[in-house]
Every structure is written in structure tokens, then in C-alpha cells.
Amino acid sequence: MSGNSDANLSFDELCVLLQRLGYSIRPTKGSHVIFTRDTSFLNLQNQGGKAKAYQVRQVREELKKLNLEP
Description:
alpha+beta
């Protein structure tokens, strides 16, 4: 949660984390995947097996807002 490894997080690891925290996955066409939970949603993109750093930051901020820090 410190933000030190935003650019090095695996896309698959981020997907597993969100699913374990109660987010539902809604696949889309292409490299995008949408995660939903209650009224929040996150649109993530797989970039060669890595999660995009700015999207990792968005996930971290969302988890802090919902008080779901792992």
C-alpha cells in the first residue's frame, strides 16, 4: 500500500487481490477488465502482463476510501 512498486505489479496479481476483496469481474473486449463492488468500479488494462502504474494508484486510493486495505 506504500506505492513503492506501482510499476512492477502483475496484472493477474491485482485481479486476484480485487476478487478476494469482493469485487466482481466483468470482462470486456481487448485488454480491459472492469471490476465492480457496490457503487464503485475500476477499469483496468493489462499491459504485457503488468498493471499500469496509474491504475495501481487508483486501486490503492479506492481501497483506502472503502477502508479495504489488505
